Task: structure prediction
Amino acid sequence: MSVADPWKSIQLVQGDITRQDVDAIVNAANSTLLGGGGVDGAIHRAAGPELLEACRKLGGCDTGSAKITPGFKLPAEYVIHAVGPRYRDGQHGEAQALASCYGKAIELAEAHQCKTVAFSAISCGVYGYPIESAARVSMRAVADALSRHEYPNQVRWVLFNDEIYGVFAAVLKELEGGGL
Ligand code: APR
Result:
């Protein structure tokens, strides 16, 4: 049974994704899955060295896709490593790739019976995706996936500062109201 109104299952919080006590957190990784800066670096630091060992065995991940590992020292049981697109000009399939990695993350969450999932703002940092369009593409993709899957039944974006929180909140308000 999927959720009736997926928008009711979406929340936004401001904070640090490594402290979220949820079933799975979603990392903004790169295609090597061997760690990096930003949220990727924070998650690897908080999870401990076993995370990198587990990632080494995955053989990388295509842009637009995601892979899952245990969370090790994190409060979250799992880490879903999603690889978002590097933003160029919006004419190179960036929106499709961003939507795709969120959809894949939801599929992995369901396959591992994760009821609660916390997303980072994939591609919104080093990868340079304009925040407002990333928010719209991301939340639409997740709302669509939630309406087709039984799990998860609660998702949140964990946004790292006031500015990105404000943009996501404005876009969520518009989308909840049926904004195109
Ligand atoms: N908790 C939540 N969000 C965070 C945290 C944190 N601890 N640290 C950073 N962020 C936010 C950033 O402020 C940004 O809004 O995560 C968002 C994603 O930014 P990046 O981490 O730069 O990820 P991305 O833009 O997808 O670039 C991915 O950066 O770190 C490398 O290995 C990674 O090569 C990959 C690239």
Notes: Strands lie at 10-14, 24-29, 66-70, 78-83, 116-119, 154-159. Residues 6 and 146 are 6 Å apart (CA to CA). The mean pLDDT is 96.
